[in-house]
Amino acid sequence: MEKSNDYYDKLIAKRLSNNATQDELRELEEWKAGSGENRKLFQNSLKLWKVNPFWIPQEVINDDYGRISFRIIENIASQRKKQKIFLLFYKAAAILLIPLLIAFGWYYTRSVHDDRPVQYTEITAPEGQISKCTLADGTVVWLNSGTNIRYDNRYNEQNREVILDGEAYFRVSKSKTKSFSVLTNSVKMRVHGTSFNVSARKTSSAVETILEEGSVEIIPSNRKGRSVMIEPGDRAVYDIEKQKIRVEKVDTELYTAWHEGKFLFKDAPLSDIFKKLEQVYDVSIETEDASIGEIRLRGIFEYNHNIVDALYKIKMTTGLNYRIQGRTVNINYEKK
Amino acid sequence: MTDDGYILFGEIKKGNEAAFRKIYEEFYTRLCFYAGKFIHDQEQARSVVQEVFAGFWMKREKLDISYSIKAYLFNSVRNGCIDYLRKEKSNQEALSGLIQEDSVSTDHIEVAELNARINSAIQALPERCREIFVLCRFEELKYAEIAEKLGISVKTVEMQMGIALKRLRNCLSDYQWISLMIFILSKK
């Protein structure tokens, strides 16, 4: 009976992969000798078998595209870093200059009557940057990304008052006579020598205060709400709409680490982390699958590093992939 | 350059990532096989090609490719391989071979294209069939080992291997068979 071509294909494959028995090899030789057509079929199979040195599966091809994106981002980031050194120089100069100007202004205006017009000094940390400044009385303020503070030219005369929009960490220098206050849209905080963090962004429905040292009194500005004194380790959240203050003990480091150029997460949902990254790096993060936001994570990211480091850390721990396009970051499960 | 390539390159210049991806899909495997001729470590070969693509994207605005994207990419990969081999000093033979040609040889390009063609034909095999073929051809497992690993009979492995071989043979056109011959002949 004539054996089908399929039969000989099996035999050829066995021969090429060294799986054929002596009998099978002999059978194949006879078949090859049978016709030129057969011999050609065998020759073609042999060449085909040998020609590819390796195999690149589709998943690898897809992954490698991601690797190229990563190389591009890394390269661009390292170019940016070079530019940043220049920026840093200007920033340092500005930080040194601000207190000098204030001191000078204070010296200059001291002798003048108090009916002089009120003039405001305004300091802003642009999106994606943290600024640090020292006020005339030695109080140090760290401004988180997108924050601005204002104070008038009477600062440090009878009292010390700053107006805050955004998030700032204060290390207030001690003074027995002059109280220090932070004013936000909805509350006033009166403090003495102390370190604390206030988050009062105009877009947020709450004002959050975290106290590390000293004492802070939170006074709702509509006067109906009662004022509350908080202690170190407290987190006070003032709900603007309900006009209520809720106080709880927290790990303050989680809320204040940003002023040291870090941000810490201990078992936080990714949705919180994304919000933070968006704020800090001035990007928008998108996901296809809402459940991604519920994944919980712990870790430290450093501000000074670029966003890719943070994204890479997330990728390493969760396996989520990212794609950066302009100022938008897409984070999704790896596509198979 | 073909009109199509010309338009694509124009789009890439403007920063159109989809156009870039298209070029990637079209050339990536060929270039990897081309680099693989000289750099035998597959990972390293791919890495050289990735660097070329990253450079292509970053330099896109300054690049003036009036001849062809394909020639640009092959030449860049060739240069990348030369740099790599110089640094590694492991494969002097491949290096001197590369330097001797002043540009990318058309034989090499044709073989790389053939490799890519076969690569996608392997990808197009039915899943089980592909798995068996890859284990046999690239992982060099014996039929019995494959059968054990996948929990199937040796008969099934035999049959699937026969099918794989036939399908792969069928995917090549006459023209490609000719270039395959030439390559094998010139190698001897």
Task: Explain what the structure shows.
The complex is a heterodimer of chains A (336) and B (188). With 336 residues, chain A is of the alpha+beta class. Chain A has three domains: 5-115, no CATH class; 120-254, Jelly Rolls, CATH 2.60.120; 261-332, Phage tail protein beta-alpha-beta fold, CATH 3.55.50. Chain A contains seven helices and 18 strands. Chain A has helices at 5-16, 22-34, 36-51, 58-110, 253-256, 270-281, 307-318; strands at 120-125, 131-134, 140-143, 147-152, 160-172, 180-183, 187-191, 194-200, 206-213, 216-220, 228-230, 234-239, 244-249, 262-269, 284-287, 296-302, 320-325, 328-333. In chain A, strands 1, 2, 3, 4, 5, 6, 7, 8, 9, 10, 11, 12 and 13 form a 13-stranded mixed β-sheet that branches. Chain A has a three-stranded mixed β-sheet with strand order 15-18-17. In chain A, helix 1 crosses helix 2 (22-34). Chain A is elongated and about 110 Å long. Chain B is mainly alpha-helical. Chain B has two domains: 1-103, RNA polymerase sigma factor, region 2, helix turn helix motif (Rna Polymerase Sigma Factor, Chain: A); 124-188, Arc Repressor Mutant, subunit A, CATH 1.10.10.10. Chain B is built from ten helices and no strands. Chain B has helices at 3-13, 17-38, 42-58, 69-88, 92-100, 106-123, 127-137, 143-150, 154-170, 174-187. Chains A and B meet through helix 1, helix 3 and helix 4 of A and helix 2, helix 3, helix 6, helix 7 and helix 9 of B.
Keywords:
heterodimer, A: about 325 residues, alpha+beta, Jelly Rolls, Phage tail protein beta-alpha-beta fold, 3 domains, 13-stranded mixed beta sheet, 3-stranded mixed beta sheet, 7 helices, 18 strands, B: about 190 residues, mainly alpha, Rna Polymerase Sigma Factor, Chain: A, Arc Repressor Mutant, subunit A, 2 domains, 10 helices, about 0% strand, globular
In terms of topology, how is this protein built?
The complex is a heterodimer of chains A (336) and B (188).
Chain A: H1 5-16, H2 22-34, H3 36-51, H4 58-110, E1 120-125, E2 131-134, E3 140-143, E4 147-152, E5 160-172, E6 180-183, E7 187-191, E8 194-200, E9 206-213, E10 216-220, E11 228-230, E12 234-239, E13 244-249, H5 253-256, E14 262-269, H6 270-281, E15 284-287, E16 296-302, H7 307-318, E17 320-325, E18 328-333
Parallel strand pairs in A: 5-6, 15-18
Antiparallel strand pairs in A: 1-4, 2-3, 3-5, 4-5, 5-8, 6-7, 7-10, 8-9, 9-12, 10-11, 12-13, 14-16, 17-18
Helix pairs in contact in A: 1-2, 2-3
Chain B: H1 3-13, H2 17-38, H3 42-58, H4 69-88, H5 92-100, H6 106-123, H7 127-137, H8 143-150, H9 154-170, H10 174-187
